[in-house]
Amino acid sequence: MSTQITIYTDYVCPYCLLAEHIVEEATQGLDVEIKWRPYELRPEPVPTLRGEDPYLPQVWNKSVYPMAERLGVPIKLPAISPQPRTDKAFEVFAMADEQGLGHAFSMRALKAFFQEEKDIGNPEVLADLGAEVGLEREAVLNVLANGTYRERHREALRHARDDMAITSVPTIVVGKQVFRGVPSPGELRRALDQAKTEADHNPHQPSPAVAGTTR
């Protein structure tokens, strides 16, 4: 039986890209099921961050860049300002998730923004990214135009906020343990081992996280 990891993410949070590197390292050789869940840090009508304001460069220089260098993850502060909203990207995620492509799309969106400076709020860009992971490009444009997954995304946000009390990302749930921020590989590995032990002793006990996408 695979052990479940649920990652609450926002595609404009650099720590979410860095955290996935930790997850990949900690899960080497393990039978795990990775699920992604959306959480918007700045939903409408909250203004998104601007690169020319002091806050972003300060945080990146003090924390993001040093952590990325330590982990060996290429990353840069995108020049796009203001930063895009991520509701449309998460609607595409919902579509991808239905087809077993949620993990692939989440990773593609994070890398597109933080390594290629692509505007992940632009439907045309999202359609390209969706096509790269196996979605039909025109189908992506259609679901965005029609709001096909809009209500599903809103329900996912409600679940994160109200049911799981998520207030920041990345938040990583492993069994009964919740990591708010980027854990070390050792911390995550120990949590996985503990979750597996508990699951082996209580095979019918449901996980606190809900369905998302499997890697």
From TrEMBL:
PROSITE patterns per record: GLUTAREDOXIN_1
Pfam families in alphabetical order: DSBA (PF01323)
Positions of the DSBA-like thioredoxin domain: 4-192
KW Isomerase (keyword) present: yes
Keyword annotations from UniProtKB, A to Z: Isomerase
Protein's UniProt name: Putative DsbA family dithiol-disulfide isomerase
Biased composition (Basic and acidic residues): 193-203
Record SUPFAM superfamilies: Thioredoxin-like
Coiled-coil segments on the chain, per record: none
Top-rank taxon, per record: Bacteria
